Amino acid sequence: MSSEIWKTIRGEISGLLMEEPEMASFFSRRILQHDSLPAAVADLLSAKLSCNDMPQEVIRGVMNEAFLKDPLIIEAMENDLLAVRQRDPAVRYTSSALLYFKGFQALQAYRVAHWLWCQERTTMALYLQSLVSQVFTVDIHPAAQIGSGILVDHATGIVIGETCILADNISIMQGVTLGGTGKDSGDRHPKIQAGVLISAGAIVLGNVMIGTGAKIAAGSVVLSDVAPHTTVAGIPAVMVGKPRAASPALDMNHDLNQTD
Prior knowledge:
- 44% of the residues lie in helices and 14% in strands.
- The chain is of the alpha/beta class.
- A 6-stranded mixed beta sheet has the order 3-6-9-12-14-15. A 5-stranded parallel beta sheet has the order 1-4-7-10-13.
- Strand 14 (231-233) and strand 15 (238-241) form a beta hairpin.
- Helix 4 (56-69) crosses helix 5 (71-87), helix 4 (56-69) crosses helix 7 (102-118) and helix 7 (102-118) runs antiparallel to helix 8 (122-136).
- The chain starts with a helix and ends in a 9-residue tail after the last helix.
């Protein structure tokens, strides 16, 4: 898949250059001078995350190492990119999702931090997490386990805790917290199954299970398990219906009145 996505991105950029020739230097530096999607992502993220304490070449080297040693990161990256392109109506081009959407960018930086964590390079993983939090306002603990095909839309104010587990094909809007409760230790964060849609400002706390194909309404506070294919809303959240779509994350419909 990687070569096809990269071919699509380069083709889009060739067309966009005709519309905006003033952006030739940017497009060349970020897309055209690279021979693959992982190389472009490593260069883009290292440029955004570098600082006086951590030069760009160091971050780029760490990312390229992760991509080389764990091809599953690249597979997840491609699925995340397609998720943004297919689910967000504001995205006209796959290249736009790559270049401008900080939710996608922050998620790929998390994937490198998670790889570092699994290699027991916890100091570098936590340092990368802190950079991502500062630059993107997205705070994902590197120990969290996140599947692929994830849309983090708008992304500002996202918090995903240490023992969170997220399955594939989940959509998360801005201002969402997947957090623990108090000072509990151990397994203390939410588990989100496939196809779940978590709307803006929702808070899910504790070691609770959000079942397959569930929908959490905007501004809700979830403190207990949510059954599969159920819509919950309120503070605390209660069942208000059932989504028509089997996977609300793909449907991206935030309405509450959807019980057939």
